[in-house]
């Protein structure tokens, strides 16, 4: 397609070029998600015995589905406490859009039954009391029963804090995620009074007997670091992370609800972790080292007491386990910790036991998407839709797959338009099911541009909506830059691309940003002398 119509007026960008790069932005997001999974993947044996359902039961509340083989009374208390925690802490931190569907909660009677489902490190189950995980289909937490009930609750509150803050802290360093979770893990309440920020005495004792780790070292810890994964090193990491988060939230200037959120936002916009830290907290890591030592030595740690009258907490209800449901649930847990081969065995077994349940097909579709298996993805998506799937991400996957097929196949104009309209309808269905699904808003923009290349402003509005829902959606930022440039707004595009390049990106997405930046410079008029980039 030559540079005509609106694209000619936009200094030579063709609608086809813009649409193609927008699709690359979609694919960049897929590559980002799949790449992260590949790096943590581990091939394991598929010899997984059928689950023994004896002793297992299911309880539900409006925000949780609990599967457990532990004590029923304890499980009911667990749900009551976490529902209370959810209401108090999310309100306290001003968190919204944090959980749009019930979370899966797995409560194991002991560590032996729990270990089968733990994440692996160097091929072995990690030494965890609990963990959280999420993917586009589910949020989940898993923990085992501890000898002291207070310890069990602390593990639960820690993991649920991760779930509450997962979107906001997506690009924050690990210390911030773990430190904040440790701070709120000591949540305690009586009647309508709730205490937040109670000091963790085990961390205080550890740091008094050893030493506070240097903040600069914390900034470099990631998911693969020995400081995070190895027991003999993790003690100092968690204790120092707790102290640093507690100091920033409570001790530096009195309580500041937004200081950690500000740090997370800066971490998402730049790769220089030291500079992000300095801007957020007004001090260098070295300066904060001295402040932390003084804070620890003082031995006085601020807490916040909140009064929440007439707190309504839903009672847990019994729910019967349907055929194959436990295989499905435990298969999902394995999938969430990236034990893929074991997950596939359980999910396929669940599919054979529950022939009319779309959920195992949805989970297998997600696995195929992660692995780039287009044929398996199409099969599972079609099966789930035929069985009446109501999952928004499944409909998004169907719409994305349809768009990729249209781009691949050389269809006549009329057939191509009909295929685009059908794909757009699937994407709209995803948004009907979840109006806050940012990736679907972004894909609607791609469809809008493909259907009407002469009206980029319509596509831009969809992409803007995606970014209002999720300001950190990198592929939507990239598509926005292509649309701005396609309409002749080169300086806006340059600024957005520069901001993208300055922040954390996968290698695939970084390469796409470079391609778009090169296109911009190819078609943009020369910069004026003395103009800012």
Architecture overview:
The protein is of the alpha+beta class. Helices cover 60% and strands 8% of the residues. It is built from 24 helices and eleven strands. Strands 6-7-3-2-1-11 form a six-stranded mixed beta sheet, sandwiched between helices. Strands 8-9-10 form a three-stranded antiparallel beta sheet, with no helix packed on it. Strands 4-5 form a two-stranded antiparallel sheet. A hairpin with a 2-residue loop joins strand 1 and strand 2 (64-68). Helix 20 packs antiparallel against helix 21 and helix 22 (474-486) runs antiparallel to helix 23 (490-502). The chain is globular, with a radius of gyration of 25 Å. Residues 1-12 and 27-46 have low confidence and may be disordered.
Count of distinct strands: 11
Give the terminus-to-terminus CA distance: 31 Å
Structural class: alpha+beta
Q: Biggest sheet, open or closed, and with what strands and sense?
A: 6 strands, mixed
Provide mean pLDDT, rounded. 86
Which residues form runs of ≥5 with pLDDT under 50? 1-12, 27-46
Tally of contiguous helical segments: 24
Mass-distribution shape:
globular
Determine the strand fraction and express it as a percent band: 5-15%
Question: Helix fraction?
Answer: 55-70%
Sheet with most strands: strand arrangement: 6-7-3-2-1-11
Please state the CA-atom Rg, rounded to the nearest Å: 25 Å
Give a concise summary.
The protein contains 24 helices and eleven strands.
């Amino acid at each position: 397609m030559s540079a005509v119509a609106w694209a000619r007026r936009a200094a030579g960008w063709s609608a086809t070029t813009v649409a193609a790069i927008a699709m690359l932005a979609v694919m960049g997001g897929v590559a980002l998600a799949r790449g992260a999974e590949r790096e943590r993947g581990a091939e394991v044996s598929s010899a997984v015995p059928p689950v023994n359902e004896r002793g297992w039961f299911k309880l539900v509340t409006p925000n949780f589905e609990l599967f457990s083989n532990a004590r029923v009374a304890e499980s009911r208390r667990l749900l009551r406490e976490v529902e209370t925690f959810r209401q108090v802490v999310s309100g306290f931190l001003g968190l919204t859009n944090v959980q749009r569907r019930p979370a899966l909660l797995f409560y194991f009677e002991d560590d032996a039954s729990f270990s089968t489902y733990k994440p692996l490190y160097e091929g072995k189950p990690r030494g965890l009391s609990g963990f959280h995980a999420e993917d586009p289909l589910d949020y989940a937490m898993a923990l085992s029963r501890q000898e002291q009930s207070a310890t069990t609750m602390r593990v639960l509150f820690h993991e649920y804090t991760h779930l509450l803050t997962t979107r906001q802290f997506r690009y924050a360093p690990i210390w911030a995620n773990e430190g904040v979770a440790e701070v709120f893990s000591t949540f305690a309440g009586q009647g309508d009074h709730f205490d937040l920020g109670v000091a963790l005495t085990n961390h205080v004792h550890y740091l008094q007997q050893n030493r506070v780790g240097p903040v600069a070292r914390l900034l470099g810890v990631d998911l693969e670091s020995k400081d995070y994964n190895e027991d003999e090193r993790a003690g100092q990491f968690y204790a120092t992370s707790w102290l640093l988060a507690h100091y920033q939230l409570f001790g530096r200037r009195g309580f500041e609800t937004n200081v950690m959120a500000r740090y997370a936002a800066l971490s998402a916009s730049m790769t220089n972790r030291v500079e992000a830290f300095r801007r957020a907290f007004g001090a260098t890591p070295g300066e904060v080292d001295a402040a932390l030592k003084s804070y620890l030595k003082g031995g006085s740690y601020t807490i916040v007491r909140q009064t929440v009258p007439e707190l309504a907490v839903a009672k847990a209800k019994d729910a019967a386990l349907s055929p194959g449901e436990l295989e499905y649930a435990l298969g999902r847990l394995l999938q969430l910790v990236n034990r893929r081969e074991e997950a596939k065995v359980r999910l396929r077994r669940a599919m054979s036991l529950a022939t009319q349940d779309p959920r195992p097909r949805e989970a297998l579709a997600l696995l195929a998407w992660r692995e780039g298996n287009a044929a398996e993805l199409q099969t599972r998506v079609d099966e789930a839709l035929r069985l009446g799937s109501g999952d928004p991400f499944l409909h998004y996957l169907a719409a994305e797959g349809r768009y990729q097929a249209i781009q691949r196949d050389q269809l006549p104009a009329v057939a191509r338009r009909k295929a685009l309209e059908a794909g757009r309808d699937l994407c709209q269905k995803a948004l009907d099911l979840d109006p806050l699904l940012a990736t679907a808003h972004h894909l609607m923009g791609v469809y809008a541009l493909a259907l009407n290349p002469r009206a980029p402003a319509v596509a831009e509005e969809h992409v803007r909506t995606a970014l209002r829902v999720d300001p950190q959606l990198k592929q939507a930022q990239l598509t926005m830059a292509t649309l701005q440039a396609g309409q002749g707004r080169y300086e806006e595009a340059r600024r957005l691309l520069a901001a993208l390049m300055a922040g954390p990106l996968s290698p695939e997405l970084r390469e796409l940003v470079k391609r778009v930046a090169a296109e911009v410079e190819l078609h943009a008029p020369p910069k004026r002398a003395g103009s800012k980039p």
